[in-house]
Each structure stands twice: as C-alpha cells, then as structure tokens.
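S.,

Sequence below, as promised.
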Amino acid sequence: MINRQLINQLENLFESFIKLINTAIDDKSPYTGKHCVVGSSTYTMMLAETVNLTGTGPLKNFHMTEKDWQKLKIAGLLHDCRKVATLVHVIVIKLLNYILFLTKSIRLIHVLRY
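The prediction came back faster than expected:
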C-alpha cells in the first residue's frame, strides 16, 4: 500500500509541475488565452470522450482504459511545455493556427455527436 501511495504522490507532483510550467507560459504571453492551462488538455479529453462514446461508424470499437486516459491527459498537458522558451511573436502565429484547429475540432465534435 505504501508503494502505491508513493507512486500516486509522484504522479500528482509530476502533473502539478507540468501545470506550473503551463501557468508560466500563459502568464508570459497575453495571447495564449490560458490555452496551456485549460485549453489543450481539456479539448483533448473532450474529443477523446466523444470518440470513446461513439457507438457507430469507423470509431465504434475505439475504447480507452483508465491508463490510456491518464496518458492522454499528461500528453495534453505536456504538449505546450516547449513554449516556455518560445518568443511571444512566435506564440501569436501559433495562436492563429490554434484558432483554425479549434474551429475544425468543434465541427468534428458536432458531426460525431449528431
């Protein structure tokens, strides 16, 4: 039981560290709109949940385990960590690309749900 508690504490520490980096990135630039903290991982999990619940079509057999969910959550949080060393004007360009991605994602969620 002690080993499991230590592993859980290390996982929580790791996730907190990633969130701290993401907060620093968001605070560094007024253009990210808190994308690092609440955007990427939230939208990733929403898309995965929608696909996971799909009962028809080519993705009907797609199902995620609890471990898969944890890995996806961490991946969603980690994907912006490289921006800690990115210049602000580069982030602006990335923001425009993100807006396009978000628009496409919302359309995909709408198509999958209806």
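The chain has one domain: 2-113.

Coffee later?
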